[in-house]
Amino acid sequence: MEMVEEEVVIVGAGIAGLATAVALKRLGIRALVLERSEGLRATGASLTLFPNAWLALDALGVSHKLTSLYAPTERGFITNLITGTKQEVSFTATNRIGTAPRSVHRKTLLETLANELPNDTIRFSSKLVAIETETQEGLSVAIIHLSDGTVIKAKILIGCDGVHSLVARWLGLAAAVNSGQSAARGLAVFPQGHGLNKDVHQFLDVGIRAGFVALTDKEVNWFFTCKSPPNGKDVAGSTELIQREVIENYAKDFPPLYLDVVRHSDLSTLTWTPLMFRYPWDIMFGNLSKGNITVVGDAMHPMTPDLAQGGGAALEDAVVLGQHIGKSLIKNGRLVPGEIAEALDGYVKERRWRVTWLVIGSYLSGWVQKGGSKWWMRILREVIYYRLFFAKIVNAVSYDCGKLPSVSLSAELESSRKIG
Fold first, then answer.
1. DSSP letters along 146-214, please?
2. Domain ranges of the chain
3. What whole-number distance in Å separates Cα of residue 98 and Cα of residue 30?
4. How far apart (Å, rounded) are the C-alpha atoms in residues 35 and 160?
5. If you count Cβ atoms within 10 Å of the first and of the last residue's Cβ in the chain, which end, N or C, has fewer?
6. What's phi and psi for 84, nearest 5 deg?
7. What residue ranges are annotated as transmembrane (predicted)?
8. d(CA 309, CA 15)
């Protein structure tokens, strides 16, 4: 059995885990990132990042490496396939930050974050199986057990291990629940170019929301959400079946342009997954930290994708956690184990209500948009939601999480040498 001691351990090398590691590195704090996969996970071909996410990436020092690759999306078109009505929405008109969202390749985002870290930061093929705590000289230490028998002692443990987080379970958080919806996602490739602009196109039907947006001149990201399981079929394991089900069954009456996008899919990028979320009261009143252990991203606040805030909220988490740890570092000239819990508690207090409302807003947004064709639902969706509340929602997610604190060189050297 291998025994290892680390100052900070992050479980999960997804967006949340890598962003948290980058935030700590900016403070001069080295973290070990444990990833169960053999390499960076690129599940999900792409994602849309709204201004709040770009402000977080700017705080992490990497936004410029991505904005040079991806053009902004300033407007969208929403077509109701039941009524034939089409509405245009602006992503910048009421956005107090004044910038537009951009859709990016998930793999590129992960690689950009990973490239900011030292080569030995990420330990792949490292599956967490159990967590314990013990007290050493009056201070709490997390004991991390891996599937290969390795045991790691950490003075700070940060769970970024996704929807089914083992760290969240250890904290006592209730498991995420199925929203009753599933989502298919994919990346379409047009070798000769697709000729589309950067507008987002969405289509609504009873219980269905789908759409696409161009990432580059040759690639288009598309999605399709519906009730799950789809007709009792299990299509998650077959990319060919996913494509066929969308084209020939669920979206067969969709506009030809949407179907053409799906036909051009790179099959290796196709996924079909249930949409999970955590009940908002579990986030409001649950234990999001305990001593020197906390959670970030989907491990804290899994949500449906209807506001496209899963990735953005995770990036915000990483910056805010870095702010609170950084303040403790500046205050004491080093990280004092006895005050780590206070820093983590401050992070939780700052994030708890914002992410709760994002979970609620995402769920309700999906419910309204896919609510059907009854007259009262049409009024709720097309008059009240899109005309009155959509701009407010866009404005609400346009949130500035702030910058990371500037830590002196002496504090950085001290923190890299030891904690306590």
1. ETTS-EEEEEEEEE---TT-HHHHHHTPPPPEEEEEEEEEEEEE-TT-----S-EEEEEETTEEEEEEE
2. 3-176+278-417, 178-276
3. 35
4. 10
5. N
6. 80, 0
7. none
8. 12
Integer angstrom CA distances of residue 253 from 10, 187, 208, 258: 46, 21, 12, 10
Q: Using one digit for the tens of pLDDT, what is the confidence trace for 25-45?
A: 999 999 999 999 999 886 667
Is there a contact between 47 and 101 (Cβ–Cβ < 8 Å)? Answer: no
Find, among 276, 253, 322, 385, the residue nearest to 59 by Cα.
322
Tokens 């000769």, residue located: 192
Taking the whole predicted model, whether its pTM rises above 0.85 is answered as yes
Report the CATH fold assignment for 178-276. Answer: D-Amino Acid Oxidase; Chain A, domain 2 (3.30.9)
Please report the DSSP string for 261-287 in residue order: HHHTB-GGG-EEEEEEE--HHHHHHS-
Q: How far, in Å, CA of 112 to CA of 90, rounded? A: 29
**Peptide bond preceding 230: is omega within 30 degrees of 0, i.e. cis?**
no
pLDDT digits (tens, 9 = 90+) for 201-250: 999 888 889 999 999 999 999 999 988 654 545 666 688 999 999 999 99
* Distant-in-sequence, close-in-space partners of 195: CB < 8 Å, separation ≥ 6: none
Tokens 């790691």: give the residue: 152
What is the C-alpha radius of gyration for the chain, rounded to an integer number of angstroms?
Answer: 22
Q: Is the distance from CB of 94 to CB of 391 less than 8 angstroms?
A: yes
Q: Going by DSSP bridges, is the β-strand pair 3-11/32-34 parallel, antiparallel, or unpaired?
A: parallel
Query: At what angle are helices 409-417 and 310-332 packed, to 10 degrees?
Result: 100
Beta bridge partners of 154: 6, 142
Average pLDDT for residues 245-267, to the nearest whole number?
A: 94
Cβ–Cβ < 8 Å for 397, 315:
no
In CATH terms, 3-176+278-417 corresponds, of 3.20.20.100, 3.90.1170.50, 1.20.120.450, 3.50.50.60, to: 3.50.50.60
User: Which 3 state secondary structure label does DSSP give 4?
Assistant: strand
Over residues 147-178, the pLDDT tens digits come to 999 999 999 999 999 999 999 999 999 999 99
**Residue 193 to residue 182: CA distance in whole angstroms:** 30
CA–CA separation, 154 vs 167, rounded Å? 13
What is the CB neighbour count within 10 angstroms for residue 29? 23
